[in-house]
């Protein structure tokens, strides 16, 4: 692309995000919904002015994912994580299995091939980490009991996505699934935690204290961003997600005495790129497919909103949490997003799902994000703190 065209597209994206974000705010809706609408407006798949290369903004959107997860990691302490370790380690896989099983049952009723039903189940089972984190941050519920459970569950889901990206193409091949490769990726995830934990304990507090002595805000900001990007790049290099790496990078700095300052410094940059992420989600939607695939869209939306609510409510309640906490967690996970896109692309390339189901997945993502934000607003009053206890 020519230099002038790139910057014209960037101007269109931020301008439309500003206008639609103001519109959403004026009618008291989550601003992220306005950003998605902005993506629909400037998408090449809709009439009128549009961006020329959506791939540029998909790359920028990944920066938004990294920065948001980094902010979450700064706030999320290891003691808080340990409080919900059992529901995260055992409840998250159980919830995914229940969601997949439900979709396979529906697929059997629809006379879908078994592998297609399995792939759709995997796509539906994974919630959008990005959407959930943004809603929790906007509502100030990161440190509530329900917020901690949601975050822990989605982090484990990130690891599940890594497994599924290997497993699904393998199922379509003649040789079957390579379980050795899957086990190796999981092992790399745990091996990666060891040096990060050691650095958080020994290295980072001293380094941050030394940087703080310079009294230079630019240097401390660069240290925070460098930590975030380096750890994210390392996790991606070993086959894990950028989001998981950014979260771990935030936890490295979360143990320091300068957390509030680092959060304040990175927040404006994070919010700008998060806006680009949601605009890029809107760009993926093709309204021309809505008429021909409306039945599949409704089916997927129903599975995500109703099926996942029942599955996750039951799982969280099973681990001894109150009805209120279980309901909040279940509502938080009734949407699909960026990781579902990844699994849908993998499944489409492997021939497990049809193009119609792939496009329906993108539309279902938009609908469930919209409905999920409304459910948060209507049914869930913000909690004042993490005063709920497990029973």
Major beta sheet, specifics?
A: none
Low-confidence stretches: 384-391
The N- to C-terminal Cα distance equals: 58 Å
Helix content: over 70%
Structure in words:
- This protein has 391 residues and is mainly α.
- It is 78% helix and 0% strand.
- It is built from 16 helices and no strands.
- Helix 1 crosses helix 2, helix 3 (54-75) packs parallel to helix 11 (242-254) and helix 10 (217-237) packs across helix 11 (242-254).
- The longest helix has 34 residues, at 179-212.
- Residues 384-391 have low confidence and may be disordered.
Give a summary of the structure in a few sentences:
With 391 residues, the chain is mainly alpha-helical. The protein is built from 16 helices and no strands. The protein has helices at 3-26, 31-42, 54-75, 78-83, 85-109, 114-125, 129-139, 145-172, 179-212, 217-237, 242-254, 259-284, 294-318, 323-332, 338-349, 355-379.
Features:
391 residues; mainly alpha; disordered C terminus; 16 helices
Secondary-structure blueprint:
Elements: H1 3-26, H2 31-42, H3 54-75, H4 78-83, H5 85-109, H6 114-125, H7 129-139, H8 145-172, H9 179-212, H10 217-237, H11 242-254, H12 259-284, H13 294-318, H14 323-332, H15 338-349, H16 355-379
Helix pairs in contact: 1-2, 2-12, 3-7, 3-11, 3-12, 5-6, 5-8, 5-13, 6-15, 7-8, 8-9, 8-14, 8-15, 9-10, 9-11, 10-11, 13-14, 13-16, 15-16
